[in-house]
Amino acid sequence: MSSVFPSPPAASLESVSTPCLVLERGRLTRNLACMAATLALRGGRFRPHLKTAKSADIGRLAAPPPEGAITVSTLREAEYFAHHGWRDIFYAVGLGPGKLPRVAALLRSGVNLLTMADHPDAAAALRDFAQREALTFRTVIEIDCGDGRAGLPPESAELIAVARALGPYFAGVATHGGHSYEERDPTGFARVAQAEADALRTAAARLHAAGFPSSVLSLGSSPTALTGVDLAGITEVRAGVYMFWDVFQAGIGACTLDDIAVSVLAEVIGRPAHRPNEFLIDAGAFALSKDISTAKLGPGRDAGYGLVCDADGNLQPGLRVTKVWQEHGLVVSPAPLAPDAFRIGSRVRILPNHACPTAAAHDRYFVVDHTRAVLAEWTRVNGW
């Protein structure tokens, strides 16, 4: 196994090609330690979600293999992490029949893969495939605890039908409190966390009464994982964006701007003389994403397409990316910029609105630790 911190390349943020993804190692390790300590005190088993990080180097810090249990959101991630030594993996997206051959390959390779379904047809397709291929699946039923994305309400009559369709492959229930992102304070996060736990307990009790005891009760989101809600009966907690955080999470109060561990390094490529409040950077929609989630936070809290820092990571008050094209980003200041500020060729770092889609645009992290020296390059996996 390679070192968690591989041999550093001879580079600095002045010499790497832009745009690129910068990872502050100190902030990352602090975020990981904070979540791990919080959940250890609450008594919950932690299964970090690596859909944001998508990196074996980061995974080794969050949940070292082979004992570490992790969550993924694509089979490409599952295959990648299995290749790097993980054996306990939860593929936390509803499993369609078209993906069953890839799941079979993972199971045959020795991966203890937990899968998920929320419809009798999907469950029956999984059961028939498992029996035909002589495979042992472990599948949870997805429960909708209020997010409205996928899953069955805990009181749904269809819940028992899905368990019956799964038969011996039924393992329990799982949910995701994604609507915690609509909250704006710890009280709201705790309310969603309570809804997560209550939904799982209700669903598990109904299933148990019907003859389907649950060995897995899995829940989580980064804002709710940090609350103090009682986890009695819950077997595991999942969270992912907490590793990096982002401007939106800071906006809803789940973290602070000082917790954000990733940024996009960009070069200044334009200073229009007739627009002294603006400059252009070489990072646009393809490097930053088009996520403008902070726009719904209210007046004065809209970060546009990202907040602007200098090359050392120091926030530049008032500066934000207000417009993006594919490869261009427009930075606007509330006041005219000094002629010698942000010269052509100088570099800035953009804090992302939503770390997940921003990171997905890049194939590696340039790892730093509060300086411009690049300590390592950590590759990441993309695709499905």
**In the CATH classification, which architecture of the largest domain applies?**
Alpha-Beta Barrel
Number of alpha- plus pi-helical segments? 11
> Strand sequence of the main sheet, in spatial order?
2-3-4-5-6-7-8
State the CATH topology of the largest domain.
Answer: TIM Barrel
- Report the uncertain regions: none
Q: For the CA atoms, what is the radius of gyration?
A: 22 Å
Helix-residue proportion: 25-40%
What is the beta-strand fraction? 15-25%
Largest beta-sheet details: 7 strands, parallel
SSE succession: EHHEHEHEHEHEHEHEHEEHEEEEHEE
Number of strands: 16
Q: Give the helix/strand class.
A: alpha/beta
Spatial shape: elongated
What does this structure look like?
The protein is an alpha/beta fold and 384 residues long. The protein has 2 domains: 47-238, Alanine racemase (TIM Barrel), CATH 3.20.20.10; 249-379, D-serine dehydratase-like domain (Lyase, Ornithine Decarboxylase, Chain A, domain 1), CATH 2.40.37. The chain has helices at 25-42, 56-62, 75-83, 100-108, 120-133, 158-166, 186-209, 222-225, 247-251, 285-288, 355-359; strands at 20-24, 69-72, 88-94, 112-117, 138-143, 170-175, 216-219, 236-237, 262-270, 278-281, 307-310, 315-324, 329-332, 347-351, 364-368, 376-379. The strands form 2 sheets. It has a 7-stranded parallel sheet with strand order 2-3-4-5-6-7-8. Strands 9-10-13-12-11-14 form a 6-stranded antiparallel beta barrel. Strand 11 and strand 12 form a beta hairpin. Helix 5 packs parallel to helix 6. It is elongated and about 75 Å long. The mean pLDDT is 96.
